[in-house]
Amino acid sequence: MRTYRAESIGQLDRPTGPVRERLLREQSAHDVFASAFTPEGCLTYGPTLTRFTVRHLLTVEAPSAVDADSEAALEAEVRALALLEELEVPVRGELATSLTCLEDLKRR
Prior knowledge:
Shape: elongated
Oligomer: single chain
Number of helices: 2
Number of strands: 4
Strand order of the largest sheet: 2-3-1-4
C-alpha cells in the first residue's frame, strides 16, 4: 500500500455569468493558503480565474510500486475532474498531474 500527495493543475475555460460570479465570490475559500491534501480533494484558484490546482491525498494498493504510481496518477485525474464537474468549474485542455509518494520520502 502506498500513499500519495497528488496535484492536478489545469486552466479554467473562461467562466462567464453566474459561474464566474460564484467563483469570484468564493475565491477566498479556494486560496492557496487554505489548501491541503485531502481524500475529498481541495480546489485552489486565483482571482484571475485562469489556472487551478486540485490536491488529493490518495492511498493505492497495487502489486508493485510502478503499478501503484500509474494507478495513483489515473485516480488523481479522475477525482479532480469529478470534483471540478461537481463544482461546475469549466476546464480547458488536459490536466497535468504530479505525484509524491510519502513512503519514498527520506526521513531525517
